[in-house]
Amino acid sequence: MSPNVEPATPAFDHRKGPRRRGEELESAILRAALDELAEVGYPALTMERVALRARTSKAALYRRWPGRAELVVDACKAGGVSEIDLPDTGTLRDDTIALLRQLSAKMDSPFGSILRGLLAETTRDPEFAKLVRERVQTPGPTAVHSVLERAVERGEVEPHILGSRRATVATDLLRNQFLLYGNPIDDATITDIVDDVYLPLVLRTERGASGSDSGGNTEPDAS
Amino acid sequence: MSPNVEPATPAFDHRKGPRRRGEELESAILRAALDELAEVGYPALTMERVALRARTSKAALYRRWPGRAELVVDACKAGGVSEIDLPDTGTLRDDTIALLRQLSAKMDSPFGSILRGLLAETTRDPEFAKLVRERVQTPGPTAVHSVLERAVERGEVEPHILGSRRATVATDLLRNQFLLYGNPIDDATITDIVDDVYLPLVLRTERGASGSDSGGNTEPDAS
Amino acid sequence: MSPNVEPATPAFDHRKGPRRRGEELESAILRAALDELAEVGYPALTMERVALRARTSKAALYRRWPGRAELVVDACKAGGVSEIDLPDTGTLRDDTIALLRQLSAKMDSPFGSILRGLLAETTRDPEFAKLVRERVQTPGPTAVHSVLERAVERGEVEPHILGSRRATVATDLLRNQFLLYGNPIDDATITDIVDDVYLPLVLRTERGASGSDSGGNTEPDAS
Amino acid sequence: MSPNVEPATPAFDHRKGPRRRGEELESAILRAALDELAEVGYPALTMERVALRARTSKAALYRRWPGRAELVVDACKAGGVSEIDLPDTGTLRDDTIALLRQLSAKMDSPFGSILRGLLAETTRDPEFAKLVRERVQTPGPTAVHSVLERAVERGEVEPHILGSRRATVATDLLRNQFLLYGNPIDDATITDIVDDVYLPLVLRTERGASGSDSGGNTEPDAS
DNA sequence: TTTTAACCGAGACGGTACGTCCCGTCTTGGC
DNA sequence: GCCAAGACGGGACGTACCGTCTCGGTTAAAA
Q1: CA gyration radius, chain A
Q2: Where is the HTH tetR-type domain (chains A, B, C, D) (predicted)?
């Protein structure tokens, strides 16, 4: 109750030489967090262990991040966990398949459970949800956009697709597949998504048919 | 924060009263779990509180379920959390929109955070992942199938769509939208999913363009 | 914030055979507390270390005692820390000196710092102060009383002294000496207290000079 | 509990203003310490809060005092916490009672818990114990001595009492009473101490009965 | 007057203990 | 046998201080 009558003088004096501060310390913590994620996974990652591993104190963590979720988000960012090798095969189909394969491989790594865990905690506040999207989810959207842009340049895809919902259908379905059915994701699933769903939606047809302005509606009864 | 859990029945000591067993006890537990979910949400639900609320012991819970995730799955099932009013408007478009709106409403309820939480815990074992899909995710797929079947009967949709990946694209995208962007889901998003993505994929066209062989999608409208 | 999404399953399973409970556990804890007191002293005693030493959990301690002060009080009681060998030399003087020497020896042991520490914490509430008096301070008063009673029987002391403030002056002064000047207490101090202060106050004199009925005052000028 | 410490001077950043040094800073710290003592009491006083309140840094505190105990000792001294209005009523009895009443009143103030706390920490080293006696305990002894000297001049007390143990019995018993039984101290207790114990020990009698030179013993002991 | 060294304020740092909560297991009695 | 109650060993939580340290300053004394 009372803070402490006599604070039990720290058992021993251990002050090291140059104490780490600022960026040096921060990157040591992020490194420790990444190592923990790789070793024990997201659900078992604790602030305690990260602090221990980084040879610092919990207080140093809480000074920077409000909780483990935010720490992990930053660790992912710092670790380049969501970096993508932008494919450039010459056709939209092969680019997209290469992209999905990379994403699928990510899901198979510790990053998979991280993604699940973080999404679970976005319930808390929209602020954090946004953070997760920006720091963890970016690879997909950005890469998709680049791939599509090149397809537009090649004439494979109409420009207006770029900003439409159709653009991200492939990665959206892959993510959904992962979250529902887990990993590993069958390669057939990837080609199925691409060939049966994605390409028909985005590829230009001689009739220019697949384009649609937002909210477009094939059925007349929508009027 | 403080565990001020008011037990459902104010003061009754089942140690020395008519002791509940079997189904009676089980449903009391599930009821308590549902109440907890509604009140504090999934992340804050603990076995301890559920046991207290159900006026039973943790042992009774662990005898039946290996952990809170499994308990919650059963509670959802028992509570009809994932039941759907099958819409029947006469057109696929309206049926689908009605369906997505219902699902979207669910996501806005405690069920939303439950879904997130459960998906996060499917990392553990595929067995449990399957359970979640079957008990928690069923409403969507089943309803989608029924709606599509009726559309097939009406001639709006080709039969082979029924078993294809295209069939569930609408619900898949909705789920993805929820998991990434949270609730509430804008109604415009729903119509966008339906009109810009889903219908072009599943509706029959005179040219049969939307058939699921690779690459084929032609838009009839917009011509 | 949220308790825990996945409680990081305890690293390892370690459940022992027969788990200690009730009195067995309690005495193990008290024993551990006593050992700690002897080794590191009261100010450095922590609940954490006691729990560790007793091979139990902090929760088990907090279930029984609200804080370390109360735990230590009980440990003292259990360890017979304040037990006294009742002296019986045949004269009040020698009995009293023997008694003070014993008390002085106690103060020289870990018990000394315990007494200081506990007295410091009696600020909190009178309840606890009472506890300290009863469990930790009892030896003095009780022994004093016995010693005095025998002196009364021998005719050395008038009976009315027994309940008066004079009865405890010797131990009161010794305690005061310890608290102000610390230990060890010089043997000359003890004989000084006894011969110069205590005996003149309690021994019967033919003239009845030092005797007094309640509130009595030998000096007329006090009026 | 929450460290809601309002700094004395509302908002002034001494980093970039006229920076306090030496005595000015020191007295600001002591003032802050006294305020803290009055507000939260000794056990809850922390270096952190004092530094915050004084709008300075912990380092400035530790440069001057090795720990909070020493700081508090100085603060007491500076705050005149142990100053006494020397009574002069004309009789030893009334002087002594007035004195004890003042001391008792002190014990009822924050000074009470300070005394307890400091005494608890004298375990550490005799040096500090001496400091406490000199800075915090002085009022009693000094005043007692003055009062007694006047009584000697009036002929109420024999001169040799002045240096004997008997001289301080009244304050010693009062202190003991406070430490064991807490405050407030009943007025009857004070008169009891004075009339039943103290005066019989120090007042001169025509018979010289209660008087004694050091080590003296009115009883032909062990006879 | 200019330099320079001491000192100041702020607060980060590594660390320990706090007291609480929940985990999943186990024991105790009572029905 | 199963039930309720809850104790048990364990571990992580997030907070509060400890006493040290680093970092830019300010300021007074030395040059």
Answers
A1: 23
A2: 23-83
pLDDT at D219: 39
Torsion, Cα C181 C183 C189 C190, to 10 degrees, reads: 130
Q: How far apart are CA A26 and CA B192, in angstroms?
A: 43
**Predicted confidence (pLDDT) per residue in C20-65, tens digit:** 778 889 999 999 999 999 999 999 999 999 999 999 999 999 999 9
Contacts of C143 (CB under 8 A, 6+ apart): C84, C86, C99
| Residue whose Cα is closest to the C1' of F23 | A21
Q: Across the interface, do A221 and B196 touch by the CB < 8 Å criterion? A: no
DSSP code per residue over B155-186: TSB-GGGGGSGGGGHHHHHHHHHHHHH-SSPP
β-sheet bridge partners, residue C203 = C157
State the CATH class of domain B92-202.
mainly alpha
- Give the one of D44, D120, D121 whose C-beta lies nearest to A3's C-beta: D44
Asked if B188 and A189 touch (Cβ cutoff 8 Å), the reply is no
Judged by CB atoms closer than 8 Å, whether chains meet at A44 and C124 is answered as: no
CA distances to B68, D26, D118 from D64, rounded to whole Å, are 56, 8, 18
CB contact under 8 A, A6 and D121: yes
What CA–CA distance (Å, rounded) separates C27 from C38?
A: 16
C92-209 under CATH 1.10.357.10, yes or no:
yes
Strand partners, B203: B157
Which residues in window 52-81 of B are less than 7 A from strand E by Cβ? 57-59, 62, 67-68
- Second CATH level (architecture) for the domain A92-213: Orthogonal Bundle (1.10)
The identity of residue B108, as a single letter, is D
Q: What residue segments make up the domains of chain D, in order of their start?
A: 22-78, 92-202
What CATH class does C22-78 carry? mainly alpha
Nucleic strand E near CB of residue D73 (< 7 Å): no
Question: Which residue from D204, D167, D200 is spatially nearest to C192, judged by alpha carbons?
Answer: D167
Looking at the partner chain, which of C173, C181, C196 has a beta carbon nearest the beta carbon of D215?
A: C196
Q: Is the overall model pTM greater than 0.90, yes or no?
A: no
Under 8 Å CB-to-CB from D79, ≥6 apart: which residues?
A: D30, D34
Radius of gyration for the alpha carbons in chain C, expressed in angstroms and rounded: 23
Contact assessment for residue A28 and residue A36, using Cβ atoms and an 8 Å cutoff: no
pLDDT higher than 60, residue C16:
no
Radius of gyration of chain B (CA): 21
Quick: pLDDT tens for D10-30: 445 565 566 677 788 889 999
Token pair, residue A40, equals: 């024990």
Do B and C make contact via 3 or more CB pairs under 8 A? The reply is yes
Interface of C to A at Cβ within 8 Å reads: 1-2, 5-6, 8-9, 43-46, 66-67, 117, 120-121, 124
Q: How high is the pLDDT of residue D214?
A: 37
Secondary structure percentages of chain C, helix, strand, coil, to 5: 65, 0, 35
Contact A121 B43 (CB under 8 A): yes
